[in-house]
């Protein structure tokens, strides 16, 4: 129950970095040469403008072209208290999920050595077993084993938990070996069929690196990637090692006219704990753009790098999919391999355009908007510009075919088996409608775009917006659970909600149930007080009638059970309001990133099950009240409605896994 209350507030604050669409067919026209002086002047202008507009406290960026670092610069202050400026070579920023590229690099190193095979069951490398069957809604269907390739392209079929990803308490850290055992998500999709971004999948790959290499994950990265590339200002370790502490940037959020400092964030190592500088990340980009080579060192063979830049999974030929760890995308008409990263306080982007030998890295703290992609898009438009896409005309019969895809779609990167599933009601939803001409109207993140059919089940975005996400093209199919699936570029997909799963219906039922139950509680309490006052003066006529009707002991207990249910519901709502208050610095309730006490967990468990148990009691008494004639007709109707709303509330708790 505590997690349900917390999730209700998390969804109000969670935002994610989304990737921009671009047109389908481009003719290229490079307007300006990639000159270091021009690049610096251009990025200085764009970055400072974005930082001022969005109150960004600090930022670092680097650009590599044709084997050289042509730009590396820091902006703002790494520490506002001391006035220390950002140094692109030495100042570390948290790079979030962009760090996953180091996990996949490590995996490919081991593959080169013949120590792992991308298509072998991961259980062959693990010291615990992942069952080879589905684990959702009682399904135990045997399925193919999960392989490392599935982990790399985010198709292992795991559900994903979106709360408790970050923490500001070092005490929350547990060894990687314990994390992959204790926090293993359920298998809900057949592997290799549904794209659903998975932090756990990357953590599992990192653990395989540990087991195969025989050294801790962070140490392996230091010895096999950092050292060859001379990345002296990078680490996966948490907290930051003493020798790098002075170089770690401070994260800030702009509040009430000033920058407020946030604390260091802890997270699972292989999926996002890395801190690095712009120059160190430039070295990493150069290695990939030069066939795994940097100066005299090598981290991968050229053929392996070539494989890393080859697409290994996509839902449809018209969609950009996943390469080996890199996300394949089309930005401004250019084939790009990239990986964004985000924490509560930092946002990062790494972009490689291999055919032009260009790499772009950017990271900052304190922003709530995807300025990284805005800046990268501006860079592309200046130096690798493209003409507008051709105008696409709707084919005959589009209107009728489009109607089949109308509905609400939920991210497949979500929980299916615990209370995190409740996030689906408000986070990552896609709403698909049609207009009078059959164009699809797709609503995502507060924007609605028009799509035109380009082939059966495939639609192209007629508009462009860097905040609209991976929606250059969308395609429709069927997921492994038999639901209509909306597929996009990158490691995300969405499945259509059944009518009883839709957010509108569930939120309406939740709000109505809570309001009716609490209003009834207040009515009974107030009425009881008034009756006591009246009885103190004279016997109330209604009280006499009730006494004549029997004033059954059962009627008294019926009211007592209903009042108890009302009190429990009130406790739930008060807990939601108190515990769910959004922290303005981290953008989440405190319980999303701090440990919850055992007492609170036990109290919430008791309250959640007590609501369900008392609901059963209320339902029984509602039937008895009609049989034995408790109260007047209006009273019985009210009690019956109370019971029905209580049942609705309990059903929501059950369906969205608030009780198990």
TrEMBL record:
This is Serine hydrolase. The keyword Hydrolase applies. Pfam families: Beta-lactamase. Residues 43-363 form the Beta-lactamase-related domain. The lineage of its organism: Bacteria, Bacillati, Bacillota, Desulfuribacillia, Desulfuribacillales. It comes from the Bacteria. GO terms for molecular function: hydrolase activity. The keyword Transmembrane applies. Residues 1-27 form the signal peptide. The chain crosses the membrane at residues 505-526, 561-578, 606-627, 639-659. Gene3D superfamilies: DD-peptidase/beta-lactamase superfamily (3.40.710.10). Keywords: Hydrolase, Membrane, Signal, Transmembrane, Transmembrane helix. It comes from Desulfuribacillus alkaliarsenatis.
């Amino acid at each position: 129950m505590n997690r349900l209350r917390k999730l209700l507030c998390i969804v109000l604050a969670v935002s994610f970095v989304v990737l921009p669409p671009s047109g389908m067919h481009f003719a290229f026209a490079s307007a300006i040469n990639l000159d270091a002086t021009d690049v610096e002047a251009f990025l200085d202008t764009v970055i400072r403008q974005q930082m001022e507009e969005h109150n960004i406290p600090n930022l670092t960026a680097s650009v590599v072209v044709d084997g050289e670092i042509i730009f590396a610069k820091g902006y703002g202050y790494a520490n506002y208290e001391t006035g220390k400026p950002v140094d692109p070579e030495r100042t570390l920023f948290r790079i979030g999920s962009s760090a996953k590229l180091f996990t996949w690099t490590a995996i490919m190193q081991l593959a080169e050595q013949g120590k792992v095979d991308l298509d072998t069951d991961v259980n062959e490398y693990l010291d615990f077993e992942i069952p080879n069957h589905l684990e959702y809604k009682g399904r135990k269907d045997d399925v193919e084993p999960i392989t490392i390739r599935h982990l790399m392209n985010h198709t292992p079929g795991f559900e994903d938990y979106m709360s408790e990803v970050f923490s500001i308490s070092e005490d929350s850290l547990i060894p990687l070996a314990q994390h992959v055992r204790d926090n293993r998500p359920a298998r809900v999709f057949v592997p290799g069929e549904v794209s659903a971004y998975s932090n756990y999948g990357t953590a599992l790959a990192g653990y395989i690196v540990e087991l195969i290499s025989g050294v801790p994950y962070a140490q392996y990265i230091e010895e096999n990637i950092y050292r060859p590339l001379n990345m002296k200002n990078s680490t996966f370790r948490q907290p930051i090692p003493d020798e790098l502490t002075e170089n770690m940037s401070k994260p800030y959020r702009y509040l009430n006219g000033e920058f407020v400092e946030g604390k260091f964030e802890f997270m699972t190592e292989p999926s996002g704990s890395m801190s690095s500088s712009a120059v160190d990340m430039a070295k990493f980009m150069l290695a990939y753009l030069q066939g795994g080579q940097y100066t005299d060192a090598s981290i991968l063979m050229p053929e392996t790098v070539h494989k890393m830049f080859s697409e290994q999974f996509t839902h449809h030929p018209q969609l950009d999919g996943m390469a080996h760890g890199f996300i394949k995308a089309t930005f401004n008409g250019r084939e790009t391999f990239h990986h964004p990263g985000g924490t509560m306080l930092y946002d990062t982007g790494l972009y490689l355009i291999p055919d032009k030998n260009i790499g772009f890295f950017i990271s900052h703290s304190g922003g709530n908007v995807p300025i990284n992609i805005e800046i990268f898009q501006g860079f592309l438009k200046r130096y690798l510009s493209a003409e507008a896409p051709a105008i696409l005309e709707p084919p005959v019969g589009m209107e009728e075919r489009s109607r089949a895809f109308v509905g609400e779609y939920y991210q497949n990167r979500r929980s299916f088996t615990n209370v995190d599933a409740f996030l689906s009601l408000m986070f990552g939803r896609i709403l698909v409608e049609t207009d009078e001409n059959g164009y699809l109207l797709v609503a995502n993140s507060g924007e609605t775009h028009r799509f035109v059919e380009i082939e059966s089940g495939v639609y192209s975005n007629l508009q462009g917006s860097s905040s609209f996400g991976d929606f250059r093209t969308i395609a429709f199919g069927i997921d492994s659970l038999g639901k209509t699936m909306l597929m996009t570029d990158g490691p995300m997909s969405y499945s259509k909600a059944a009518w009883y799963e839709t957010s509108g219906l569930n939120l309406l039922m939740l709000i109505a149930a809570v309001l009716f139950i609490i209003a009834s509680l207040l009515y009974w309490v107030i009425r009881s007080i008034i009756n006591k006052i009246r009885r103190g003066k004279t016997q109330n006529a209604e009280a006499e009638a009730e006494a004549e009707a029997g004033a059954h002991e059962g009627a008294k207990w019926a009211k007592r059970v209903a009042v108890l249910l009302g009190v429990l519901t009130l406790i739930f709502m008060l807990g939601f309001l108190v515990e769910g208050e959004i922290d303005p610095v981290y953008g989440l309730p405190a319980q999303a990133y701090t440990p919850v006490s055992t007492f609170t967990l036990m109290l919430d468990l008791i309250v959640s099950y007590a609501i369900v148990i008392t609901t059963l009691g209320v339902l029984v008494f509602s039937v008895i009240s009609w049989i034995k004639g408790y109260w007047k007709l209006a009273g019985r109707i009210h009690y019956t409605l109370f019971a029905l709303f209580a049942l609705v509330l309990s059903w929501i708790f059950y369906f969205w896994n608030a009780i198990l």
